[in-house]
Structures are given as structure tokens and as C-alpha cells.
Amino acid sequence: MSAINLTVTSLTKFYGAQPALHGVSFALNTGSTALLGPNGSGKSTLLRLLATLISPDAGEIRFCAQNYAADVRSVRAHIGFMPQEVDLPHHLTPYQILRYLAQVRCIPMQHDMTIHETLAALGISHLSRTPLAKLSGGQVRLVAAAQALLGKPRLLLLDEPTRGLAPDERNQLWHAVVRFAPEIMLFSSHNADEAEDRAERLLIFRGGRIRFEGLSETLKARAADHVYEVRVPKAVAAVLQREYHVSQIRDDGALQTLRMVGTPPDGVESKHVSPTIEDAYLWLMRSP
């Protein structure tokens, strides 16, 4: 394949009469990209399209200049995908699942060595012979991550990979991703801080369209004039919480400090503060 590049052009997808994506276009080279947006904004649909699990109604996807529609089997050989909803056979062990998938995917390595390396990277090699039915929910999700990483795919797609994971499991998952070093990674998340920490760039969706594409610092700079704090009595704070968007509350005796996103209230002294990535995301979601 040619130089690493993922290009999406005018991608559109309907579920019945309901549009899920509207003419989405972007291009990525190497590196990691986080997908942010509310439920139903198109993140999972995009990942499923990129994973070749569903086909677009319009538009084009190219990976390394190769058109998905022209040779989906060849493209699929370079993709690892972890779905949001894990549906693996619970009567099988992680080893059995990964061995079967290694054979199906024709991974050109010693199967057992590849499987052990993948499970070890995720900290679950000791569970390789334990049926999934006996594993915790977080451990099962790590097995799902293992099947996505199996064979070191060039394009790694993760749909809310850390959902339901304990802190140590989250760290183990990201450690494994860094170790396997996919050339392009896209992952969805509802955690703006995680997206900023783990991705080099952001794609933020709303209503099936991209609302922002770029660096987190760029988004925070755009929101800089729209994040402020007010320090008011608790009774006033209760009113402001009903009428304005409050992202954070700090108690200070009889007073409360409210961190607010949008337009400051009249008649209350406010001061601008530097936005966090969560502040900037909330501002974007509430912008026209």
C-alpha cells in the first residue's frame, strides 16, 4: 500500500429515513484522532463505516489511496475494530477467540506467540484459558480490545474503548495501544479530558456533521471569551443553575463559585477564566 492516509469524502449514511451522517469529509495521515459528540451524533456510524461493517449511501472512503468500495477485503486486512457493544461467545476463552480470529484473518505470524503478546500487553495473559463467562465486564472489554489489536493493524478503530473499565484497566488498554503503535487510530469517547490526553487531534460531531476538526488548543482558544466564573450566595447560585449552563460548582461557606459557559448573567460580577477542554466542548455544543 502507498503512504499512510485516510480520506473520507462527502460520506452520508441513512438508517431508513433517518440521516446518521451528512456529507462528512476529512483527511488524516498518521497519528491519533478522538471523536467527540453527544449520543446519536454519528460517531459510531462513522467507525462502523470505516471498519467496513456497513456501507455508505453516498461518498467515498480511501485508505492509503485504496478505495474501500473497490477492494474491501484488501482494506479490511489492515483494520482492527473494537465495537462499543461487545458480543463475543462467552463459552470460549480469550485464547480460543483470538486463535480463531488469527486464522480467519490469515495473520502471518506464529498464532500462539501473537496471541500471548497481545493478551500480555493488556495485562490479561493469565486469563487466556478462562471462559469469558467467568470474567468481569472490564476483562471482557479488554479481550475485545485484544482482538482489535491482534496482528498490529495499521488502522485501529475503537468505539468508546474505556467505557466500563476500571482505572487500572484503562491504563492497561492505552499502554497496549501505544505499544502496538497503529499508524492511524480513531477512537470515540464521551470524556473530553481523555480525548485531549490520548489524541493528537479532535473531530467533534453534532447532528451527523463535523462541528470542529483540529487541535484541542485551537478549540480552547475559540472558547476563551465564553467561559467565566461568578461567586454568589447559594440562593442566587440555585437560580443561575436553572437559567444558565454551569459546568462546575465550588462551595465557599455561604457562597458558591460557579464556572459558566456561554453569556454571563446581567447584574452579577463575573470574570473570564481559561477554558478547559470540557468547557470548550460544552461551548461548541451550545453554539448555533
Polypeptide structure, described:
The structure is a single chain. This protein is an alpha/beta fold. It has two domains: 6-214, P-loop containing nucleotide triphosphate hydrolases (Rossmann fold, 3-Layer(aba) Sandwich); 222-285, Alpha-Beta Plaits, CATH 3.30.70. It is 33% helix and 30% strand. The strands form three sheets. A six-stranded mixed sheet has the order 6-7-8-3-9-10, with helices on both faces. α3 crosses α4, α5 packs parallel to α6 and α8 crosses α10. The two termini are 41 Å apart. The mean pLDDT is 94.
Strand percent estimate:
25-35%
Which sequence of strands runs across the widest sheet? 6-7-8-3-9-10
Query: What oligomeric state do the depicted chains represent?
Result: single chain
CATH architecture of the largest domain: 3-Layer(aba) Sandwich
* Tally of domains: 2
Q: What's the total count of β strands?
A: 14
Number of discrete helical segments: 10
Keywords, separated by commas or semicolons:
30% strand; Rossmann fold; 2 domains; alpha/beta; 288 residues
SSE diagram, text form:
Layout: E1 6-15, E2 18-28, E3 31-36, H1 43-50, E4 58-63, E5 66-67, H2 72-76, E6 79-82, H3 94-104, H4 111-121, H5 137-149, E7 155-159, H6 167-180, E8 184-188, H7 192-198, E9 201-206, E10 209-214, H8 216-222, E11 227-233, H9 234-243, E12 246-252, E13 255-261, E14 270-272, H10 277-285
Parallel strand pairs: 3-8, 3-9, 6-7, 7-8
Antiparallel strand pairs: 1-2, 1-4, 4-5, 9-10, 11-13, 11-14, 12-13
Helix pairs in contact: 3-4, 5-6, 8-10
